[in-house]
Specification:
Number of helices: 11
Strand order of the largest sheet: 2-1-5
Helix content: 40-55%
Strand content: 5-15%
Mean pLDDT: 86
Distance between the termini: 57 Å
Structural class: mainly alpha
Radius of gyration: 22 Å
Largest sheet: 3 strands, antiparallel
Order of helices and strands: HHHHHEEHHHEEHHEH
Low-confidence stretches: none
Amino acid sequence: ILDPALLRAGRFDRQVLVDRPDKLGRVQILNVHLKKSRLGSDVSPEQIAALTPGFTGADIANLVNEATLLATRRDAEAVVMDDFTRAIERIVAGLEKKTRILNPLERRIVSTHEMGHALTALALPGGDAVHKVSIIPRGVGALGYTIQRPTEDRYLMVREELENKMTVLLGGRAAEHVVFGRLSTGAVDDLVKATDIARSMVTQYGMGEKLGHVSYDRPPSPFLDVPGMMLGPERRYSEETAREIDCAVRDIVERAFRRAVAILTDNRAVLEAGAAALLERETLEEKDLVRLAADLKKAAE
């Protein structure tokens, strides 16, 4: 937030970027913190690092601490890989809320919603792996969750990947539409994320079909709020262009939703079978999802 006059040559002219660590950096940070714990033979720093892209050094220290606490609570002699997986889940999705009891209809809607996310992710090529699906409430408002973690650091995404990401985000709402013929309030966070991606595609990445290769949003000012200074993106376009942006965002999100509906309609039998299994067991692990992926492949053939 320093004024550019302070950053010119001869003053504070050298800037050191302390960014989030890459995979190699996460392995090195893990090796420091893992020395404090007694580890099981199956613990692999490389595997943990692959599951934690975007984690900072403080996040990794917290992860090791959480995994150690989980092992201590079950009176284990060593921290095993499953403890780290559960710790990642706890950090990403929040604490379990076992006292939050849903009625039978709500549980059925939530299981269908989460299975919609999982199946669209499994059906689309090149997406992040789905590690777990659960209808156990977590955090402040999550009635269920689908954990989809990338296994490598990504610095660039193409349009098709962004569209796939939106399709997966809207897969839960699409599943409700396919199975129940009506929509619930459970997709509020998904809608916010999908809309943000679509708006960024149009206003920042130049991916709007009619709006051309133009950036319409300028990054917000880093300075504190003072009279005459704008906080948030600076608008540099007309009302007509604003209307076109809104229409383009709506069209992109609508296409992603229709695509999710088409995928789940074609695989409705797999969707309902997976939702029933999730409703019965409350949590499906990666090995269970591999079987669902095989069912999807058979249905496609």
